[in-house]
């Protein structure tokens, strides 16, 4: 939206858009039609783009879509047990989920990335033996690299637990223990924090 009254849907994301957006640095301009030129594109890629009839540039609208996808992949999370995996492999919202206890909600291991698991496939059979296949089918935040890229803070006297990402500054996840209430919101510049390893 340009005026916060009329809203438009964003186009669907493609892997090409994500790859192009990863090459860009700096803040957003606020104009969906603004075109970024690649400053750090190598000669081969530029020549290939010209041969395909494309100029080496990306619109801000495409960059926004790709950045949202990157943020969702990297820091889109859910509490343990909020979703279940059936023996046939389909994933459903757990209607019996009543929230995490306050003790569990304070642990990073109680939260999972809501994307296709990567680290889970690399675990040994001995490590997988302690996992419940119906609830532990996603990657836990406790194994994120670098270690310490998340902060967990109980707030309002322990009635809300807040997780913040130090990799994507501005991402805040909340969960109200013993309830089904959880969610996340991102208010940031759309830039990944590449200084994180030096901050830890």
Automatic annotation (TrEMBL):
The record's subcellular locations are: Cell projection, Kinocilium; Cytoplasm, Cytoskeleton, Flagellum axoneme
Task: Please give the chief subcellular localization of this protein.
Answer: other
Q: Which GO terms describe its biological process?
A: axoneme assembly; cilium movement involved in cell motility; motile cilium assembly
Query: According to the lineage, what is the superkingdom?
Result: Eukaryota
Instruction: Write out the GO cellular component annotations.
Output: axoneme; kinocilium
User: Carries keyword Cytoplasm?
Assistant: yes
Q: What UniProt keywords are attached to this protein's entry? A: Cell projection, Cilium, Cilium biogenesis/degradation, Cytoplasm, Cytoskeleton, Flagellum
- PANTHER family this protein is in? MITOCHONDRIAL RIBOSOMAL PROTEIN S18, RADIAL SPOKE HEAD PROTEIN 9 HOMOLOG
Q: Which family does it belong to?
A: Belongs to the flagellar radial spoke RSP9 family.
Q: What is this protein called?
A: Radial spoke head protein 9 homolog
Biological source species: Cariama cristata (Red-legged seriema)
Q: What is the lineage of its organism?
A: Eukaryota, Metazoa, Chordata, Craniata, Vertebrata
């Amino acid at each position: 939206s340009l005026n916060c009254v009329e809203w438009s849907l964003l186009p669907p994301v493609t892997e090409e858009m994500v790859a192009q957006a990863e090459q860009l640095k700096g803040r957003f301009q606020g104009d969906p039609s603004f075109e970024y030129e690649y400053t750090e594109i190598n000669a081969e890629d530029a020549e290939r783009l010209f041969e395909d009839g494309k100029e080496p540039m990306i619109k801000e609208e495409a960059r926004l879509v790709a950045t949202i996808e990157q943020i969702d992949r990297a820091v889109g999370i859910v509490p343990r047990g909020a979703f279940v995996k059936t023996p046939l492999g389909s994933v459903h919202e757990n209607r019996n989920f009543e929230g995490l206890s306050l003790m569990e909600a304070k642990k990073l291991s109680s939260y999972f990335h809501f994307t296709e698991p990567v680290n889970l496939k690399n675990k040994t059979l001995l490590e997988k033996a302690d996992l419940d296949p119906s609830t532990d089918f996603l990657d836990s935040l406790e194994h994120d690299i670098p270690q310490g890229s998340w902060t967990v803070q109980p707030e309002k006297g322990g009635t809300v637990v807040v997780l913040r990402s130090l990799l994507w500054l501005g991402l805040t996840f909340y969960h109200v223990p013993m309830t089904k209430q959880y969610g996340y919101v991102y208010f940031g510049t759309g830039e990944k924090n590449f200084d994180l390893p030096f901050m830890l």
